[in-house]
Design a protein that fits this description.
The complex is a heterodimer of chains A (317) and B (343). By secondary structure, chain A is α/β, with parallel strands linked by helices. An eight-stranded mixed β-sheet of chain A has the order 6-7-8-3-9-10-12-11, sandwiched between helices. Chain A has a four-stranded antiparallel β-sheet with strand order 2-1-4-5. In chain A, β1 and β2 form a beta hairpin. Chain A is globular and about 70 Å long. In chain B, β1 and β2 form a beta hairpin. Classes of the chains: A alpha/beta (317), B alpha/beta (343).
């Protein structure tokens, strides 16, 4: 088996927003995810991280580029192969209130995938659902209830159970904890970690909370305005950020420790993220970059491996 | 004159709903000193926003009821709970300002931002329209909006989220309020914009010497901005103290739980997060004893039976927990909460 479970090659997703305008939400990103690891995708709102996740799982049709899953291009899949792919890759959504059908019982929400893929039926199906509920920290009594009877954290556990029910290899989690309270966030993150350990799952973890992403991920990709600007291990990203955007992003996050905060020098970025409808020429970050040079306006820097396993797209390197 | 801008005593606020009475705030006590930034932290439903909005008298009565015996003394002389709506209108927006969480929905979409800033100046300071707009331009410059002369004529939809939050700050500060309440002012913003807004609020606070109540769930923002912290749980204050009291010498298990459940950017990933099990109690029927007992790993029989009073730990620090009772068993504090950097 290949070392990489997922390879994303020059993936683009452009939306036609009318008036001849094209929104380049994801504009040529490359990265690969190793089997059994957690890859974090971070960036500010509008950077294209969610669109990237949705395009990888084929909720959106890609404009161009390839996504290789276990070495095969998933955009070529049809019918039977596509169904098999759907079984192997599942998604957990951000909003635990909107992503569960209010008119279905928990048993049917979790069982839907089992039915579609005809994995189990009758008594086996029921047992399967009960055992998954146990795995995510709920119990079999919950199976006959409806979503409104659960708290946000419990609903997110149901969303995870639904994704797990058909035994996928790969889970895309799009901001799975940002709608939850801090004490509950830790519960859900620990659950993700435990399930990964037990089942050898691979995660693409999309979030804006860099501290949480660093906590859960082995490697992290940083996106800005539809481009990937840096990819490295989570330790390296914090210890030695290369891209000026990563540097300022890390610096902007307040640390819950007054003494550290008193000593910290913060890089405050000027201005805001430019409109993706009209991105700057060259490097998309140059309009806010404290280290921008002349060539940054002229050409988009290519992704380079600056040191082993540490990639960045910046003219400084 | 007293040096306290706000004294809240035994504040109780309930909401009557078809399902019964929700006791959102259940006896909150705290003071706010002049020129101080006080953070109120806690999870959703702990009553932090209701407390703030009751101070501003923004919650309509009914459905909310401010219970007998509650007192909010503003500037040493004005009893907020006793004011008529008309009297409150004179204070709100002039002596007290508020910044809301969501800059997208809390500005009027049909008014230019200049008119919205000028509104309170015209009402409270009897300014002429032209003078008020001129002052609005100055305010926009103060909050760091470039080209304020042009921006003053724009509508909220023409501005980004970060800029709208700057406009909200300009509105709140237009009449030089003595008290500013910021309810999750940066939660809806991206981190790089959050850093800009925090920087701006710190700068303006120094300049105007307003007192600020900062409501947030983000302990990072607290560490960055506040001088004092109160921790709320299920409608009550469970611990209060200076920034260092709360971050390094916390005594309440809920505060420990909060501190241990957030990952830190500057720490190794191998450390497990310690979540608080369970969920907050139902405030239709709050528990008889300590509201946190059901989730507390140290809960004893006493905790289930009676709610603990606040124990004074120092001039600045107090916590409401039976573990602080002289007869309580000694427990070992989890090291992560209580001074990672102090030993």
């Amino acid at each position: 088996m290949a070392e990489h479970i997922l390879e994303v090659k020059d993936l683009k997703k452009h939306f036609n927003v009318g008036g001849g305008q094209v929104l380049k939400a994801v504009d040529g990103i490359n990265f690969a995810i190793k089997r059994g690891e957690t890859f974090g995708l971070v960036g500010e709102s509008g950077c294209g991280k969610s669109t990237a996740g949705r395009t990888i799982i084929r909720l959106y049709e890609a404009t161009s580029g390839e996504v290789l899953f276990n070495g095969e291009n998933i955009y070529k899949y049809k019918d039977k192969k596509l169904k098999e792919f759907n079984r192997n890759m599942q998604m957990v959504f951000q909003d635990p209130y909107a992503s569960l059908n209010p008119r279905m019982t928990i048993e049917n929400i979790i069982g839907e995938g089992i039915d579609i893929h005809q994995l189990y039926s009758g008594k086996e199906r029921k047992e399967r659902i009960h055992s998954i509920l146990n795995d995510v920290g709920l119990n079999s009594e919950h199976a006959s209830r409806f979503p409104h009877e659960f708290s946000g954290g419990q609903r997110q556990r149901i969303g995870i159970a639904r994704a797990l029910a058909i035994e996928p290899q790969f889970i895309i989690a799009d901001e799975p904890i940002s709608a939850l309270d801090v004490s509950v966030q830790a519960q859900v993150v620990n659950l993700f970690k435990q399930l990964q350990k037990d089942r050898g799952l691979t995660y693409l973890f999309i979030a804006h909370d860099l501290a949480m992403v660093k906590h859960i991920s082995d490697r992290i990709g940083v996106m800005y305005l539809g481009k990937m600007v840096e990819v490295t291990t989570s330790e390296q990203l914090y210890a030695k950020p290369l891209h000026p955007y990563t540097e300022s992003l890390l610096s902007a996050i307040p640390i819950p420790d007054p003494e550290v905060e008193r000593k910290r020098e913060r890089i405050i970025l000027e201005g805001e993220v430019p409109s993706p409808l009209n991105p700057p020429s060259g490097c998309p970050f140059r309009t806010r970059c404290p280290k921008a040079m002349k060539e940054c306006a002229e050409s988009m820097p290519v992704m380079k491996e600056v040191e082993p396993g540490h990639f960045t797209a910046c003219h400084l390197y | 004159m007293s040096d306290k801008i706000l004294e809240v005593k035994d504040l109780r606020v309930s909401f009557s709903t078809y399902a019964g009475e929700v006791q959102a705030v259940r006896g909150v006590n705290f003071d706010l000193n002049k020129g101080e930034v006080l953070a109120i932290v806690g999870e959703s439903g702990c009553g932090k926003s209701v407390t703030a909005q009751t101070i501003m008298r923004l919650i309509p009565t009914p459905p909310s009821v401010i219970k007998q015996g509650s007192s909010i003394l503003f500037d040493g002389k004005v009893e907020i709970t006793k004011l008529t709506n008309r009297e409150m209108e004179r204070i709100r927006g002039s002596e007290m300002g508020m910044i809301f969480q969501d800059p997208m929905t809390s500005l009027n979409p049909t008014m230019t931002i200049g008119e919205q800033i000028a509104e309170s100046l015209i009402k409270h300071q009897n300014m002429k329209h032209k003078a008020a707009i001129e002052r609005a331009v100055e305010m926009l410059k103060l909050v760091g909006i470039s080209n304020p002369e042009g921006r003053v004529k724009q509508f909220p939809h023409e501005l980004s989220g970060g800029m709208r939050q700057r406009v909200m700050i300009a509105i709140a500060l237009a009449c030089n309020p003595k008290l500013l309440i910021a309810d999750e002012p940066t939660t809806a913003l991206d981190v790089t914009i959050q850093a800009q807004i925090i920087e701006l609020m710190k700068k303006l606070q120094e300049k105007t010497d307003a007192s600020i109540i900062l409501i947030t769930h983000d302990l990072g923002v607290v560490a960055d901005m506040a001088q004092r912290v109160i921790v709320m749980y299920a409608g009550k204050v469970v611990e209060q103290g200076t920034l260092d009291d709360i971050f390094y010498r916390a005594e309440h298990p809920y505060t420990w739980g909060l501190l241990r459940s957030v990952p830190r950017l500057d720490q190794n990933t191998d450390e497990e997060l310690v979540p608080i099990p369970g969920t907050p109690p139902d405030l239709f029927a709050p528990p008889k004893g300590c509201a946190f007992a059901a989730r507390c790993p140290y809960a004893m029989q006493a905790c289930l039976e009676e709610d603990p009073e606040h124990t004074k730990l120092s001039a600045t620090h107090s916590a409401a927990c039976w573990l602080l009772h002289p007869d309580a068993p000694k427990i070992e504090k989890p090291i992560e909460a209580g001074g990672r950097h102090h030993g």
